[in-house]
């Protein structure tokens, strides 16, 4: 049964979940951001707590109230998210990267507000790449049995299908599970619903039908639970 009722099956486990979208500041009032709402990450954190886990939620700019029974660390930028996730991951049985980290940040951030030029010209923004948190966590595991989960929103294109891109990303990131959303058709951002395929590094594939983000969270933890060692 997908996402069965399993209270207590994560008791004694420590899990880390990241949620939301990071912001990269251009000046004190402006940033580059993305449309991640944080709903999926919050659902994962709440569900893990309900099943008995000790949960640390690293939240990047999500607007929801802190879930009950969960330790929440609030961050803004990808580098802050990386530092918080790496620290919490040291003691974690599982790390789930549901956040959408900005891939790039401005090479410089102005301490003062950037003003418009009188000649009508616009400033150029130079970007540099942010660290890849999921790849870092996966390749430098705190311990051998840690279960690491990534998320990916993909579209098919001329070079391959959604699942082709997802398999390649799973291998490149080095995580154990990748939760894949096909975003070719429409929006998942801010929606309470989700539909996904969960791919395992062991070759497994679980199709999760359209349903709530809580329903998807249940199946994700089922998949994590199967891979945790010990009773
Ligand atoms: N991720 C991360 N650190 C980043 C970027 C992404 O940890 N700097 C994580 C996300 O939290 C997600 C997974 O990697 O779990 C996949 O994110 P995605 O944006 O699809 O991967 P990218 O490597 O950034 O690939 P793309 O060029 O397709 O955006
Ligand atoms: Ca990205």
From TrEMBL:
Cofactors required: Mg(2+); FMN
Pathway(s) served: Cofactor biosynthesis; coenzyme A biosynthesis; CoA from (R)-pantothenate: step 3/5; Cofactor biosynthesis; coenzyme A biosynthesis; CoA from (R)-pantothenate: step 2/5
UniProt-annotated stretches for the region Phosphopantothenate--cysteine ligase: 15-231
Coiled-coil residues: none
One annotated GO molecular function: metal ion binding
Domain of life: Bacteria
Keyword tags: Decarboxylase, Flavoprotein, FMN, Ligase, Lyase, Magnesium, Metal-binding, Multifunctional enzyme
Domain spans labelled DNA/pantothenate metabolism flavoprotein C-terminal: 10-226
UniProt-annotated binding residues for CTP: 103, 113, 131-134, 151, 169, 173
GO biological process, one term: pantothenate catabolic process
Enzyme Commission no: 4.1.1.36, 6.3.2.5
Cofactor note: Binds 1 FMN per subunit.
GO cellular component terms, A-Z: phosphopantothenoylcysteine decarboxylase complex
Function: Catalyzes two steps in the biosynthesis of coenzyme A. In the first step cysteine is conjugated to 4'-phosphopantothenate to form 4-phosphopantothenoylcysteine, in the latter compound is decarboxylated to form 4'-phosphopantotheine.
Family: In the N-terminal section; belongs to the HFCD (homo-oligomeric flavin containing Cys decarboxylase) superfamily.
Name this polypeptide is given: Coenzyme A biosynthesis bifunctional protein CoaBC
Organism listed in the record: Nocardioides seonyuensis
Interval of the full protein contained in this chain: 170 to 400 of 400
């Amino acid at each position: 049964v997908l996402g069965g009722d399993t209270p207590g099956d994560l008791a004694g486990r420590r899990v880390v979940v990241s949620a939301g979208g990071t912001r990269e500041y251009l000046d004190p009032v402006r940033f580059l951001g993305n449309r991640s709402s944080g709903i999926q990450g919050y659902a994962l954190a709440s569900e893990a707590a309900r099943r008995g886990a000790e949960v640390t939620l690293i939240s990047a700019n999500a607007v929801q109230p802190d879930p009950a029974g969960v330790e929440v660390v609030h961050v803004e930028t990808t580098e802050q998210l990386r530092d918080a996730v790496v620290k919490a991951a040291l003691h974690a049985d599982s790390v789930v990267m549901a956040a959408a980290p900005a891939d790039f940040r401005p090479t410089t951030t102005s301490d003062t507000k950037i003003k418009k030029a009188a000649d009508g010209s616009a400033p150029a923004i130079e970007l540099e790449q942010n660290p890849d948190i999921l790849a870092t966590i996966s390749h430098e595991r705190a311990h051998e049995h840690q279960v690491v989960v990534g998320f990916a929103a993909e579209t098919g294109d001329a070079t391959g299908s959604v699942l082709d891109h997802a398999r390649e990303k799973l291998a490149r990131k080095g995580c154990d599970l990748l939760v894949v959303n096909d975003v070719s058709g429409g929006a998942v951002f801010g929606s309470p619903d989700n539909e996904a395929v969960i791919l395992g590094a062991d070759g497994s594939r679980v199709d999760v039908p359209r349903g709530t983000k809580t329903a998807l969270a249940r199946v994700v933890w089922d998949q994590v639970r199967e891979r945790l060692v010990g009773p």
